[in-house]
């Protein structure tokens, strides 16, 4: 459990403390995710909802690996217009999934600390798996829309006078702007909520 706590601290620093990822934090995060995945396969780790969320968090770094592979072989497998957008959207998906899962872990810690008995029916493995799936589906849909918008922008010069195309282009651009704005404000809100949760937990444990 100490190793899992260290991994969570590392991920909180990587996604909720640092303003942007860097090579060092990304590399340490990948190593931590690999090590955590191995630990979670051990019979000594009980199958609880927290373990399910942490497992899904570790799996999110697969997107970083895909980003590295795409960056390395992008010129061979795709056009120059497609690759940069895909690289950014893979990193965006990884960041959003990780932030949401970390917030779920924080919320569960809050329930365990203040409502251990009342929240027991919520803190189940089934609910944790369902929550993880919903997060993955929502973020995948978001990044798919972002990727489509990037492709439309890249190809807009080839069909600038076609009315249906222009209407779809403007609709896609509007949706993308709204998504980016929502993601930005949600990211700020999650940082505030996480700080508040751990502030409450810390002082609660100190008083005891």
UniProtKB/TrEMBL annotation:
<dbReference type="GO" id="GO:0035025">
    <property type="term" value="P:positive regulation of Rho protein signal transduction"/>
</dbReference>
<dbReference type="InterPro" id="IPR017452">
    <property type="entry name" value="GPCR_Rhodpsn_7TM"/>
</dbReference>
<keyword id="KW-0675">Receptor</keyword>
<keyword id="KW-0472">Membrane</keyword>
<keyword id="KW-1133">Transmembrane helix</keyword>
<dbReference type="GO" id="GO:0005886">
    <property type="term" value="C:plasma membrane"/>
</dbReference>
<protein>
    <recommendedName>
        <fullName>G-protein coupled receptors family 1 profile domain-containing protein</fullName>
    </recommendedName>
</protein>
<keyword id="KW-0297">G-protein coupled receptor</keyword>
<keyword id="KW-0812">Transmembrane</keyword>
<feature type="transmembrane region" description="Helical">
    <location>
        <begin position="93"/>
        <end position="115"/>
    </location>
</feature>
<keyword id="KW-0807">Transducer</keyword>
<feature type="domain" description="G-protein coupled receptors family 1 profile">
    <location>
        <begin position="32"/>
        <end position="208"/>
    </location>
</feature>
<keyword id="KW-0325">Glycoprotein</keyword>
<dbReference type="GO" id="GO:0004930">
    <property type="term" value="F:G protein-coupled receptor activity"/>
</dbReference>
<feature type="transmembrane region" description="Helical">
    <location>
        <begin position="168"/>
        <end position="199"/>
    </location>
</feature>
<feature type="transmembrane region" description="Helical">
    <location>
        <begin position="12"/>
        <end position="40"/>
    </location>
</feature>
<dbReference type="GO" id="GO:0007200">
    <property type="term" value="P:phospholipase C-activating G protein-coupled receptor signaling pathway"/>
</dbReference>
<feature type="transmembrane region" description="Helical">
    <location>
        <begin position="127"/>
        <end position="148"/>
    </location>
</feature>
């Amino acid at each position: 459990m100490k190793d899992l706590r260290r991994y969570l601290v590392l991920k909180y620093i990587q996604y909720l403390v640092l303003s942007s990822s860097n090579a060092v934090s990304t590399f340490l995060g990948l190593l931590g995710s690999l090590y955590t995945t191995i630990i979670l396969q051990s019979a000594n780790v009980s199958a609880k909802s927290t373990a399910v969320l942490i497992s899904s968090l570790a799996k999110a770094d697969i997107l970083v690996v895909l980003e590295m592979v795409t960056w390395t072989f992008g010129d061979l497998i795709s056009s120059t217009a497609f690759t940069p957008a895909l690289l950014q959207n893979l990193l965006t998906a990884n960041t959003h999934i990780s932030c949401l899962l970390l917030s779920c872990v924080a919320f569960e810690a809050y329930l365990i600390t203040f409502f251990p008995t009342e929240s027991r029916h919520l803190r189940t493995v089934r609910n944790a798996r369902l929550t993880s799936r919903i997060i993955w589906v929502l973020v995948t849909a978001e990044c798919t829309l972002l990727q489509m918008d990037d492709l439309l922008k890249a190809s807009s010069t080839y069909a600038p006078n076609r009315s249906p195309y222009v209407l779809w282009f403007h609709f896609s651009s509007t949706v993308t702007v709204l998504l980016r704005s929502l993601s930005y404000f949600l990211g700020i809100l999650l940082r505030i909520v996480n700080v508040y949760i751990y502030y409450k937990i810390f002082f609660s444990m100190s008083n005891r």
